[in-house]
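Structure tokens please, single chain.
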Amino acid sequence: MGSGLLLRDQPGVIQSWVVNAEWVQKNIKSHTGAANLCIVTGFGDSMKGMFNSGDPLVLDKGVTSVEFDAVYFFRVENEGFIKRLQRIPGEGLRVLSENKKYDSWTVKPGMDFEVFGRVVKAWQGEDF
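Here you go.
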């Protein structure tokens, strides 16, 4: 997904995940097409409360711009993020973490910014 993206501290990769068309129809409410769906994982605790580090997320990579506030996989410069983006007219995009220990920040016009997709489903795993 793009080139030159720094993904720090990635402890592993989901090698395979297969679902049928019926599962997609029943479980993914909004997407640009089943062929655009893929699995990604985020690491770290900045989105704790919505999903945990390493949880599988379904990404719609057919979404490459921020048309409304939602959770996106994106990059700024050469660093990747999975965060909620909030459009702020005249200012840019506010980057919000679910974990309130993290401050918000702004993607301003002119920054090297690219959207890889919108998160459309998240599994929140818990250790027992």
